Amino acid sequence: MTDIQTERQIAGDLLEIGAVTFASAAPFIWASGLLSPIYCDNRMTMGYPDVRRRIRDAFVDRIRGEELRPDLIAGTATAGIPHAAWLAESLDLPMIYVRSKSKGHGKESAIEGPVKEGQRVVIVEDLVSTGGSSIGVVRALSSEKLVVVAVLAIFSYELQESEQAFSEIGVPLFTLTNLGHLLDVAALAGKLDDRGAQSLAAWRRDPWQWTRDRREKEGSG
Fold this sequence. Notes:
Layout: H1 3-16, E1 20-22, E2 28-29, E3 35-36, E4 38-40, H2 49-65, E5 72-76, H3 81-91, E6 95-98, E7 111-112, E8 120-128, H4 132-143, E9 147-156, H5 160-169, E10 173-178, H6 179-188, H7 194-205, H8 207-220
Parallel strand pairs: 5-6, 5-8, 8-9, 9-10
Antiparallel strand pairs: 1-4, 2-3, 6-7
Helix pairs in contact: 1-2, 1-6, 2-3, 7-8
């Protein structure tokens, strides 16, 4: 399949298995404080062997197509771990995972698994929103003198904030699908009504302004 076919196939998979929830009337709250009329839970993919195999194979194709040549696959805790494991197994490469923060006991490590200075690492994420957690993992690995060659993610909300973050840190982000493809596929499948589509379009243009408008509306209601 072409890249676009793969992106649309995986977007369709996420919709089909119920990994995506649209909620314009009762938006979700992110850790950043941002309100969102959509939630993507890629942990759902673990329960569908055909879907997770397509994701794994698409990751393999992207690594080979971009000539990333990793020595090591790193999964982000927790949702990136299973996909990193399946990918590492397929490529016959060692794998580690990275916690969001160091443990408070034992060796107090953020990185779990053996690493060697100078190893080329590909990070596997389930999704990217603002990019903050991914950048934290990049910095944790870089502090151990590992070379992060790319971050791979199943899905991206395509927020400008994340694009800027990856640009500033100098690490490329490659995703298997994104919000644009997801909305196109959802509209064609009749899973998104006009009101929902309009709300998502406004959120996509400026999610922080959408959040402010929503909070003002709730405050005056």
